[in-house]
TrEMBL record:
SUPFAM superfamilies registered for this protein in UniProt: Metallo-dependent phosphatases
Molecular-function annotations in GO: phosphatase activity
Domain Calcineurin-like phosphoesterase: from-to ranges: 4-196
GO terms for cellular component: cytoplasm
InterPro entries per UniProt: Ap4A_hydrolase, Calcineurin-like_PHP_lpxH, Metallo-depent_PP-like, Pesterase_MJ0912
Protein name: Metallophosphoesterase
Family statement drawn from the similarity comment of this UniProt entry: Belongs to the metallophosphoesterase superfamily. YfcE family.
Record-linked CDD domains: MPP_superfamily
Length: 248
């Protein structure tokens, strides 16, 4: 029996999308859920999404939204303050102490996971970024990590760009993006996540797979909740949920 690990990212306060993904995960024999950050912001349910992630995810790393919303150095504009008020000081303190990188062995590959980049939460890498930039993602992280490993990775998974993809790079290296649960921007307005399947903790070569899932969820509920709580940039958010395209 192979181990299955689900990887979710960029929920962005969209509770109906998260609930649909968790329901899908629950019927697939997954033993562990890892969240790659940006649980909060944008949508109407930052607090609820954070609480569900704390219960359901075995590991959580920080995204750029967790970072700038919880950082006391970020100016308290009405936009920032809206999400700070939703979350409250206790949850902001929890968010602040989250690690930025995690990793594990699976089927002979060292897999490293983070939100955007292992060296900075704000250095965005796309599928079409220069090869040099994509290869730098495999290097030993500069950001705080849950791992003790100072090894270059064999496989990298991340979030941040709201657009899933998979690439095979030189020397057997695999690079993938898990897409976004709650704010998909690849023109498919459905929740996205990934399941890795293989032998967890095994350092010897063995079978593995990566599956990309798309899950239908109640988009109208996300939209009506966004109108009810009057989120900032409401119109752009509603358009993004409807179209699956980045609208701001
Ligand atoms: Mn994001």
């Amino acid at each position: 029996m192979l181990d299955k690990i689900a990887i979710i990212s960029d929920i962005h306060g969209n509770l109906p999308a998260l609930e649909a993904v968790l329901k899908d995960i629950d019927r697939r024999g997954v033993s562990q859920i890892i969240c790659l950050g940006d649980m909060i912001g944008k949508g109407p349910h930052s607090k609820e999404v954070l609480e569900v992630c704390q219960i359901r995810c075995q590991r959580i790393v920080k995204g750029n939204w967790e970072d700038f919303i919880s950082d006391p150095k970020t100016e308290a504009t009405p936009f920032i303050q809206f999400y700070r008020n939703q979350l409250g000081e206790e949850r902001l303190a929890y968010i602040r102490q989250l690690p930025s990188v995690t990793g594990f062995w699976m089927s002979g590959k060292y897999i490293r996971l983070f939100h955007a980049n292992p060296h900075s939460l704000y250095d965005r890498v796309y599928a079409t970024s220069p090869l040099e930039k994509r290869l730098a993602l495999f290097e030993v992280p500069k950001l705080p990590s849950t791992e003790s490993s100072s090894k270059a990775a064999d496989m990298i998974g991340y979030g941040d760009i709201h657009e899933g993809y998979l690439q095979h790079l030189e020397q057997g290296r695999v690079l993938f993006n898990v897409g976004s649960v709650g704010n998909s921007c690849d023109s498919i307005p459905m929740a996205a996540y990934v399941i890795l399947e293989g032998h967890l903790h095994r350092r010897e070569e063995a079978d593995f797979s990566i599956q990309f899932y798309r899950v239908k969820y109640d988009r109208m509920k996300s939209i009506s909740d966004a109108m009810k709580v009057e989120i900032p940039d409401q119109e752009a958010y509603i358009n993004e949920i409807k179209t699956g395209l980045y609208c701001r």
